[in-house]
Amino acid sequence: MTWSTTLPDETSPTPDPTATQAAPTPDPSLRTAAAQTKTAGLKQASNPPAESKTPKSGASPATGRKGISYADAGVDITSADRSKQRIKMLARKTFNRQVLSEIGGFGGLFALDLEKFPNPVLVSSADGVGTKLKVAFELGIHHTVGQDLVNHCVNDIAVQGATPLFFLDYLATGKLDDSVVEKVVQGISEACRANGCALIGGETAQMPGFYAEGEYDLAGTIIGAVSRDKIITGEHIQVGDVLVGLPSNGLHTNGYSLARKLLFEVAKYGPDHYVNELKDKTGAALMRTHRSYLSVIKKLTGAEVVSGMAHITGGGITENLPRILPKGMGAVVDRSSWTVPPLFEHLQHLGNVEDDEMLRTFNMGIGLIAVIPAEKIKKAKAILNRANERHCIIGRVVRGERKVTYN
Predict the structure, then answer these.
(1) Which among 299, 262, 293 is positioned nearest to 369, based on CA atoms?
(2) 226, 264 Cβ separation under 8 angstroms
(3) Which of 299-324 are b and which e, b meaning 16 or more Cβ less than 10 Å from the residue's Cβ?
(4) Partners of 239 in the beta sheet?
């Protein structure tokens, strides 16, 4: 993690000692007055004032004013340095033999394993946690948002067949709080370790006056790799392929602006309010961690039973599933094939939200869709059962124009 250098103190320009000015010859009529002034000046010089002429510590030599520091502008470099040391320790826990650099350099160095990826293609993704952070601020829960960030990014590249390699985070805040930063990065570190991903760098920015007190923004970038012949884009999807849905763990990291409006403004719930329909407190229901599907994805791709996968994030099934459908194909999804979690049903009830709006805003309980050729569905289901992964067949690929139809 890096921080900006301090701003220079304000100083007054030093006069040029070589500069001279010709003194005009005084008028004779003024000589008496000049002599009196000179005499007074000599007397004053022989009796200097008691105050020391040495400027106070931190003051400008030319003006006597105290110099302005970066801390005066709201940026605490000392606190930033303390945070950096903690971040280094958390990041090192994620390192593997491919990491060639330390935290604090100008860039992270990572050696790609060419034996594992003989014909490598790098896969990248960047994302943020969004307004789920507002709930985290309210509850004072900062550990899980780092996990949300990493898992979201991991899923985005895993659905293309990629293995996560390394991660970089960005945290920006108005005033640095060491304990909050440490909790956020601890969550990032733990999620990186769980996904076999190295945290090799990032940025923690102090931006006074830019964010409300106690708030911050969080984003991250992930880089992964896949051998060229193992890339999954959906180009091999065929009409008749089966759509298998895997459950989400709640809202994950999308739809929070609408969810917060419905729960906190319309229903007037507080974060600690227990809601019978949810069988949970509002805040706890909203803060459930975004799932990582990496483990189950590896099992499916390793067995070569998938022709495409869609991570269901912002836009819901309606907008994410078409992203992998080839031209000339659409999808039919049976809404009765899975049980929608109570949180989504309650949100819809609170705002009288239309079905189409729900389906293009929330994941509705489905966090990942795997497209399986019909002849491989039996094998795929066996793999999922062995992994104790809940799943359900939610529809099929049909002829159409990259659009989802619900029945």
Answers:
(1) 293
(2) no
(3) bbbeeebbbbbbbbbbbbbbbbbbeb
(4) none
Q: Which CA distances in Å does 342 have to 7, 105, 329? A: 53, 47, 32
Task: Give Cα 143 to chain centroid, integer Å.
Answer: 13
Q: What phi and psi, each to the nearest 5 degrees, are found at residue 262?
A: -70, -45
List all residues 6 or more positions away from 382 whose beta carbon is below 8 Å from its beta carbon.
none
User: Tokens standing for 134?
Assistant: 């507002």
CA distances from 64 to 16, 68, 70 (A): 19, 12, 19
pLDDT digits (tens, 9 = 90+) for 301-328: 999 999 999 999 999 999 999 999 999 9
- As a whole number of angstroms, the distance between CA 152 and CA 166 comes to 14
Classify the phi-psi angles of 64: left when phi > 0, otherwise alpha if psi is within -120 to 50, otherwise beta.
left
Q: At 23, which amino acid appears?
A: A
User: Is 0.90 topped by the overall pTM?
Assistant: no
Summarize pLDDT for 181-196 with one digit per residue, the tens: 999 999 999 999 999 9
* Both tokens assigned to 123: 């896969």
